[in-house]
Amino acid sequence: MLVGQLFQLAPILGRRNGGGGELGEAGRVSVELASPRWRGAPDRAVSSIGSMARRFEQVRTARLLMRRWRDSDRAPFADLNADPEVMRYFPSMLDRSASDDLIDRSEQRFDEQGFGLWALQVLATGEFIGFTGLNPMPSGVPGEGRQEVGWRLARSAWRNGYATEAARAALEVGLISLDLPEIWSITAVLNAPSQAVMCRIGMTRFGAFEHPNVDVGHPLRPHVAYRVKRGDASNM
Predict the structure, then answer these.
(1) Which of 9-23, 66-80, 178-192 has the weakest average pLDDT?
(2) Phi, psi at residue 56, to the nearest 5°?
(3) Are 200 and 14 in contact (CB under 8 A)?
């Protein structure tokens, strides 16, 4: 779960197959940092990362720009969050207010810690297609307090390998540039495609659990957690 909402989680460069999984391709994604700089004061939001937070406000991959959010992203992001197919593995869709709030919280985290949920833009067209990024794991789940990698893309962007391309870059920022000890992903047990992707990017299944923020008896309450450790980064 990211920022109080359940997220489809993924990552590794590839394309979606007919069943909704992704077929990985060999090779690492090249990450380009946009003017990274060091902050001089400790940041309460990144106490688990250290007192000096690198800033990653832009990351460039072969086909995508991962960047801070813009006001022009709000309308297409709201459309994405109101799409029942995109939100299939979420307890509910988001209205415009909740969608805007997610952007605002994401921007706040960039201000506080120098990284977060990047808006995704296709370099060739300039089109906004969703987000991929890192966010704190919620309370009451495996990996509580660590960072989670998550993504959410518009349906029009599916089956192009964009989610995995960007999420792999996010993992590289977290495990290599920020030197985090591990990164987690969680999703509903029913979300088999996302679990397949987690395996393909080198994440290992940690175990199943009942998500505390989903109603008892809801079919999406059973969840599963995956993680990748810093020493496993070479296997991504």
Answers:
(1) 9-23
(2) -130, 75
(3) yes
